[in-house]
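Attaching the record inline, Q. Sequence:
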Amino acid sequence: MMRRSEMRALDVEAARLPSGAVVREVERHRNGEVMRLRDALTEEVPIAFVYNQRPHAVMMATPADLEDFALGFSLSEGIVDSAAQCASIEPIEALAGIELHIAIPDDKAAQLEHRARELVGRTGCGLCGAQTLDAAVRHPSPLTAVIAVPEAGMQRALRDMAQNQAINAFTGAVHAAAWADLSGHIVMLREDVGRHNALDKLIGAMQRAQIDPGTGFLLVTSRASFEMVVKAATAGIGFMVAISAPTALAVALACDAGMTLIGLARADGYCVYAHPERVLCDRSTTQPSQ
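Structure, as predicted:
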C-alpha cells in the first residue's frame, strides 16, 4: 500500500477514495513554497439513531458502514440483546445528516423510552446525555468465554494494522478497530473519526458475519477508555489490545469483567493491565525491587 504522502502527491481524485473520505482543495506551505493541491479529508457528519420512529441518539461519525454502526451501537449500548432483535436497519439521508431507522421489538423500545436518554455525542465523547451516575458507567456482566492469545499473534496484527486502514491511508484522521484471529491475521477492520464509533461498527460487522468473539482478539488504534472496555465486554470480547494507554477505570472494569487488557502496544513491547495469565509468551516475570 502506498504511503499517505505518496497518495497526496498524486493529487487524489474523489473516484479513487474509499467511502468516508472526500477531496477538498488546500493551500500547502512547506520549505518556503506555497502550493495549491487537492487533499483527502475524512467526512464527519451527524448520524441520528431512530428506534421505532422515535429519535434516541445523535453521534458525529464517518458515514461509512452505517448498517454495521447501527447494529453495533444497538448491541454495545444494551438496547437489544442480539442481532436478530434489529428487524430492519434503513439509512435515510436528511438535510443535516443521516438518520438510521432501526426497528426493534416493542418491549425493547419501551425499555429504551424508560431510560429517557438523549445522547448527543461529539468526537471522542461517549457520555454526553447520561443523566445519572448509574447511566454513565455501565458494568458489563463477567465474561464466560475467554481465550489466551500468543504474543506473536499480537505482534503480527500490530504490524499489519496500518495497511488495512483504507480511509486513514488517505486522510490520517480516523481511528480503527480490528478483529484478528489467534495467528494475528486481521479478519475485519472498521474505521471512524470517533474511536467508539469504529468499535461499534466492528461489533456490528462481527455480528453480521457471525464471528464468535471467543476466536480472536480486538485491536484498537485509540486509548482504552472505560467505555471501550464496556462496549467490547458487552459484545463478549475477552481480549483487547490498545495502541495507546488505558485509564484506571478501564483497567478496573476489565479486571471485574474478566477481560485481558493490553495497552501501549508497540512492535517492541506492550503493557498488560488486566489478566496477564492469558498472554502466551516464553519470558518470565521480574518483580520490581522493593
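The chain has a mean pLDDT of 88. The first strand starts at residue 21 and ends at 30.

More tomorrow.
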